[in-house]
Design a protein that fits this description.
With 472 residues, the protein is of the alpha/beta class. It has two domains: 352 residues, Radical SAM ThiC family, central domain (TIM Barrel); 84 residues, no CATH class. Helix content is 43%, strand content 8%. The protein contains 18 helices and ten strands. The strands form two sheets. The protein has an eight-stranded parallel beta barrel, surrounded by six helices. β7, α11 and β8 form a beta-alpha-beta unit. The radius of gyration is 23 Å and the shape is globular. It is an enzyme of class 4 (lyase). InterPro entries: ThiC (IPR037509), ThiC/Bza_core_dom (IPR038521), ThiC/BzaA/B (IPR002817). Catalyzes the synthesis of the hydroxymethylpyrimidine phosphate (HMP-P) moiety of thiamine from aminoimidazole ribotide (AIR) in a radical S-adenosyl-L-methionine (SAM)-dependent reaction. Keywords: 4Fe-4S, Iron, Iron-sulfur, Lyase, Metal-binding, S-adenosyl-L-methionine, Thiamine biosynthesis, Zinc.
Length: 472
């Protein structure tokens, strides 16, 4: 029985109980959200190392990190290091987008070691199995999908919404089809003259997913790759199809989330989120960015985090991170770190803006530590404690500076908070103190786990020496 089937039958599963604990909410509320298709718990029955989590607009905004090898670089050890880095810096899920060698071994290693859900894009492996794209058959696709389900993959991107009749709608675009899966399937359809094989076999895919409780991540193969293409006929024609496929999957008791753009001007983001929610009957929206400008190669973790914050505020349930290497190359460990930091900020900012229970407690606690010049507490509460401490210690490394009433930005004489405190102590202004004399209790906060500090303090034992529990 899938999580969706159990929820519809009124059963609160162990996964739902764990999710309720992590989200600081009632297990019955979790069950109802899953039953209504408004949230998903990606949890393959074969993923033994998994610590269940939930994706839905009524819960803390989640962040996905993409990792994976390419033809040019990376091996199993390198991919496990990326996985560990992603979990260490706060990824809620990880997608293995490998397109190079050893796909099976890398996927199995990721599932074995990952406490977070693992996602894949099966069309990539299908392409690797043939000499020409047109050699891909319906049977091959189903074989690849079932094998990955057996390996324990929790969710899969299935680009079943790209139809033959949609392809002419992309002809006037500036950047055409920018989704790898979308472009592969478009080529297959153009050369074979047949309809999208993932669309044609969708109900058979649903049967496989139901057996292993794999969650659909319905791919947006026609997402806009630049601002000029945002909100065009091609994008919305595919979205309408994704709405139909969502309801088909639900008929098979299979969980669904829907992927979204891409590159979208700031003023269109909320409208696009609202449109997806309407067309797909509230199924969780999982967005890549969106990037709000096209001018910043090398800084697209920033351009996209701006859009991601607005998407989260508008109701997107999960944000797919973008690293500084986007459009330029395969990200390394530091790129993963920077991308996750940007997106954890975006997710948290969205939750604060939406008034999530307790979300701002973290902000308040850090602000109180900052005003009190409690440097050690600031570091512990920081999104990335290691980096916060490192930046401070670059100029003031001594232990004595951990109690100093200034940092190197302003120095002693011009520190505004010191000046303010001294003035209040002198009686010129009212002193600032909490009503009970204590700081915000983040440990006892009502916030969901993702909105509690710190994100970046997972066990740092090398993955190949750790048990799955150590990575959590």
């Amino acid at each position: 029985m899938t999580q969706l089937a159990a929820a519809r039958h009124g059963t609160v599963t162990e996964a739902m109980e764990r999710v309720a604990e992590r989200e600081n909410c009632a297990a019955e509320f979790v069950r109802q959200q899953v039953a209504d298709g408004q949230a998903v718990i990606p949890a393959n029955v074969g993923h033994d190392a998994l610590d269940p989590m939930i994706i839905g607009r009524e819960f803390g905004t989640k962040v996905n990190a993409n990792i994976g090898n390419s033809e040019e670089t990376s091996d199993i050890e390198g991919e496990l290091e990326k996985l560990h880095t992603a979990v260490h810096y706060g990824a809620d899920t990880v997608m293995d987008l490998s397109t190079g060698a050893n796909l099976d071994a890398i996927r199995e290693a990721n599932v074995e070691h990952s406490p977070v859900p693992i996602g894949t894009v099966p069309i990539y492996e299908a392409v690797k199995r043939v000499d020409d794209v047109t050699d891909i058959t319906h049977e091959l696709l189903l074989d690849v999908i079932e094998k990955q389900a057996e390996q324990g993959v929790d969710y899969m991107t299935i680009h079943a919404g790209v139809l033959m009749e949609h392809l002419p709608l992309t002809d006037g675009r500036k950047t055409g089809i920018v989704s790898r899966g979308g472009s592969i399937l478009a080529q297959w359809m153009e050369e074979s003259g047949m309809q999208n094989p993932l669309y044609a076999t969708f109900e058979e895919i649903c049967e496989i997913f139901a057996e292993y409780d794999v969650t659909f991540s319905l791919g947006d193969g026609l997402r806009p790759g630049c601002l000029a293409d945002a909100g065009d006929e091609a994008q919305f024609a595919e979205l309408d199809t994704l709405g139909e496929l969502t309801r088909t999957a639900w008929d098979h008791d299979v969980q669904v989330m829907v992927e979204g753009p891409g590159h979208v001007p700031m003023d269109q983001i909320a409208e696009q989120v609202e449109r997806q929610q309407e067309v797909c009957d509230g199924a969780p929206f999982y967005v890549l960015g969106p990037l709000v400008t096209d001018i910043a190669p090398g800084y697209d973790h920033i351009t996209s985090a701006i859009g991601a914050t607005e998407a989260a505020r508008a109701g997107a349930a999960m944000l797919c991170y973008v690293t500084p290497k986007e459009h330029l190359g395969l990200p390394d460990r530091e790129d993963v770190r920077d991308g996750l930091a940007a997106y954890r900020i975006a997710a948290h900012a969205g939750d604060v803006a939406n008034g999530r229970d307790g979300a701002r407690d973290w902000d308040d606690a850090l602000s109180e530590a900052r005003y009190a010049f409690d440097w050690s507490e600031q570091f512990e509460l920081a999104l990335d404690p290691e980096r916060a401490r490192s930046y401070h210690d670059q100029t003031l490394p001594g232990d004595n500076y951990k109690e100093a009433r200034f940092c190197s930005m302003c120095g002693v004489e011009f520190c505004s908070m010191r000046i303010d405190q001294d003035a209040r102590d002198a009686g010129e202004m009212e002193s600032i103190e909490a009503e009970d004399g204590e700081r915000t209790d983040v440990a006892g906060s009502a916030a969901a786990e993702v909105n509690r500090p710190p994100v970046g303090t997972h066990d740092s034992t090398p993955v190949d020496e750790a048990t799955p529990a150590d990575d959590d």
